[in-house]
Amino acid sequence: MKKALVVWGGMELHTPERGAHVVRELLEAEGFAVTVTPDYDALGAEDVGSNDLVVPVITDGTLAPEKMNNLVAAVRAGTGLAGYHMGLATTFRASVPFRYMAGVYWVQHPGNIITYRVDVGDNPLLEGIESFEHTSEQYYLNYDPAVEVLATTRFSGEFHPWRKDVVMPVVFTTMHDQGRVFYSSLGHTADELAGGPVREILRRGLVWAAR
After folding, report:
1. Are 45 and 28 in contact (CB under 8 A)?
2. Beta bridge partners of 172
3. What is the DSSP letter of 55?
4. How far apart are CA 47 and CA 163, in angstroms?
5. How many other C-beta atoms can be found within 10 angstroms of the C-beta atom of residue 39?
6. What is the C-alpha separation between 201 and 133, in angstroms, rounded?
7. Cβ of 99: how many Cβ atoms within 10 Å?
8. What span, in angstroms and rounded, lies between the C-alpha atoms of 83 and 166?
9. In the chain, at which residue ranges do the beta strands (DSSP E only) sit?
10. How far is CA 166 from CA 21, 104, 145, 186, in A?
């Protein structure tokens, strides 16, 4: 049985505890044994590498350098790393090693909650999922050019005209040494993960990222 560690915390606006349990439900349905905890230090435990997947559902926060070293070493050795919305993009903002590993950093969401289009590309991981309209925060990201982009969105320029027609990744995969990394910017709150393509994209990404 595969093992997953889901750690939640940070801004309550993002409903991290509820979101962590959505991740737990998705993984348990796939046969994973899942631990859910608000203890950030679990991500940097000596045995964190015994997990096949780690999922931080965390806005900001800190992790001591020696614990971050444990987490990075685990991912480099094959433990998968996955996140949605704030998870990865805003997690441990001040940690350069984490930023390098996550491959993504949130910088803005022009207009806050708006309706925008998610364009799904031609990738086996998202096969059968059609492009769709979504109402949430449209994340503007700084991201690693090494990622493989699975879905994108285009900024209209309505709110920040100087970013009109910028095409931004919404869903991507990448590697950090031997560890698979998955990210989806969808899921501002747990309610957005209740069903439809947002939930299905997350489910597939979690399973893909696991060792």
Report:
1. no
2. 149, 183
3. E
4. 44
5. 12
6. 14
7. 18
8. 23
9. 3-9, 33-37, 53-58, 80-84, 104-108, 113-120, 132-137, 140-143, 148-154, 167-176, 179-184
10. 34, 17, 15, 18
Residues of the chain with pLDDT under 70: none
Q: How far apart are CA 151 and CA 126, in angstroms?
A: 9
E strand or H helix at 97: helix 96-102
Q: Which two tokens stand for residue 91?
A: 């997690």
Contacts of 143 (CB under 8 A, 6+ apart): 103, 104, 105, 169, 172
Amino acid at the residue 62: T
Please report, for residues 39, 130, 165, the alpha-carbon distance to residue 18 in angstroms, rounded to integers and kept in the order given. 15, 27, 34
66 three-state secondary structure: helix
Name beta bridge partners: 143.
104
Pick from 94, 39, 99, 32: which is nearest to 72 by CA?
99
